[in-house]
Design goal:
Blueprint (H helix, E strand, L loop, with lengths): L2 H15 L2 H19 L18 H6 L2 H23 L9 H26 L7 H22 L2 H21 L4 H22 L8 H11 L9 H11 L29 E2 L4 E4 L2 E4 L3 H24 L5 H7 L1 H23 L7 H29 L12 E4 L6 E4 L3 H26 L8 H29 L2 H28 L15 H27 L5 H6 L36 H7 L10 H24 L25
Antiparallel strand pairs: 1-2, 2-3, 4-5
Helix pairs in contact: 1-2, 2-4, 4-5, 5-6, 6-7, 7-8, 7-9, 7-10, 11-13, 12-14, 13-14, 14-15, 15-16, 16-17, 16-18, 17-18
Main location: cytoplasm
Keywords: Cytoplasm, Nucleus, Ribonucleoprotein, RNA-binding, Signal recognition particle
Family: Belongs to the SRP68 family.
Length: about 650
Amino acid sequence: MDITQFVVSSRDKALLYGDYSTYRTQLAHRLLNIRKKLRVATRHRGKYNHKANNIKPEQVAQDVSYARLQLLTAERAFAQAMAMKAAHASNKKGITGHTRSHIVSRLDKAAKYAADMSDLLQEDASGASDVDRLEAQAYAAMLRGAAAFEKQAWELCLANYAAVWAIYSALSSASATRADIFRDLLTETIEPSLRYAAYQLKMPRSKPIPIIAREALSSAKSVAATPDTGALVASVNKIDPSILQPKTAATADGSESLESAAPGTVGGVVASTRTLTWRSREVKIEDATIASAWAALDLAKARLEAQLVAGGARLAPKDKAAAYDDVLTVSQDAVDATKAAIDDLRNEGIPQSDPNMQLLYIARTAANYEMISDRIGRNRVLTGPHDGAVVQAGPVVTRKAKGKAAVPRPEAPGRLLARLKEKLVLYDGTLQSLETVKELPGVAADVELSEQLDATAKYFVALKSLAIARSHTLAGNAANALALVKLANDQATEAAPGLTDADSESAQKKNSPLLSIHVSAADVSFLQNLLQAELQRARALVDIEKQQPSAGGAAKAGALALSETLGEYPQGRAVDLENIVTYPPRIQAMPVKPIFLDIAWNYIDYPSKAGGIAGVASAVGAAVSVAKSELSQQAAPETSSTPPPQQEQPAKRGWFGFKR
């Protein structure tokens, strides 16, 4: 029948263009159509037939419309109650007693019809499936919880909403197609109402919703969904037994275990006993929120480990890093939970010397350490294999022409430099995270942990120096590259003893594919061997550069080409035949003839060979006199209307006998 999807889609479609009054009108029309179809509609001026509501399970098996009849009747009563509530929501006095009683009566009617439909579907003769029966129970309990919410009967409201939460949580994990609908109902309607009812009953706000729901169902004698809460719990456990059970540490394959786990599992945290182990110190967690956060962190790490094992080498570094997001989110929740618990104790005036406060400080340090460790592990995944010590330069495949085979081309130096810059950003973030770990409470007093963190910092400084050295090698600075490789080799040599001892102590983490703040001895050994080879290579490049002739190299770089200095005689130096022209050519300014010379040529006559200098002088004088006469004519005012007699103008000739 898809009861939940039918109700949710009908409400969303009606509220998209109107309000609950519009929804009630639409339901009235649909009810009339169904009654006409089933031939139970009341005739005009006829008497209402009460027997039409006495539906039998056999009728539901023959036609689902009989169940839809009761479903739509319950929805119409619910829509009327919500319309009245929305109409009086803007009043300053709020909802008065008469209006509230009217709303409660409509919700009671809706819950009654929903319970009748649930009872019909529970019969085997109705032909309903187990999922339909659970959805009908959840729908009836949700309406009964809404009525109890308006009555302010908080125990009944809590019990009904707990039943709805348990059913929809189980169905969301079992049905992948409709999981979004159930989750939206849980997050938008059920969980806020459940929290508010628990708040009215003076329950601690730090208590998780699964524990609230389990306690409410165990203490309630009956809910609207069923008179026997034990049968409801059994139905939920049949679908997903982890919904109403306390979550414990996760198993290695990523599944949740309901049995009490032994200490020393993933992260050393066991949620069933609410204890965690940090640096050989066992801390008993009293706050339920912190215990739930640690259990969720164990589950997230187990799922991540299973995902990495299943993916293997097929996963790209970006995909592996994206898989760490869930773990980082859950670890941040654990940090926030510990901080909130400490702030609550501070507000109550409890001093720091109190044992509970000290235990919370240890839990906060452990939570921050785990979060920063996961963050560093994500950065190590992004840098590539062996923490970015190996350069992976994939060839760029290009095609010369259509129909020809692809030709591989080596990666451009610019791309290699860009990838080295990305690695440097990740190394800087890792070193900053390590400095943050050193500032955590209790870390400075732990000498062994401080030495391990210093060795880890030197390890990443060596990797950073190696990346910078490779960029200098690409730029042609062999001496700088040699100095940086030597620095990286020294840092790795100093970090090796501390990381080797720490790796021998944490031998149980060797086989885990999860990367964290702990660096294995194999990684340190690989980096040392690589740096030894890089050091020899850098020394060889510097030696080759020194042996090459470099006389005049600096002068040649800034000297002009021979083609630019043809008008100068080389004094005191020989002609450099290797610098004849500038190559590659570049854009330069070149001298041009000013434009006023072109205008002057129009007024100058070239003298003949016989005229000589006198001809030149006479031509220049004639040009000047003509120019003065034209200026005087333009400046003089017009005294008469008769135009002046036109004088013969001398012929203006240019280079080719026509004007310019």
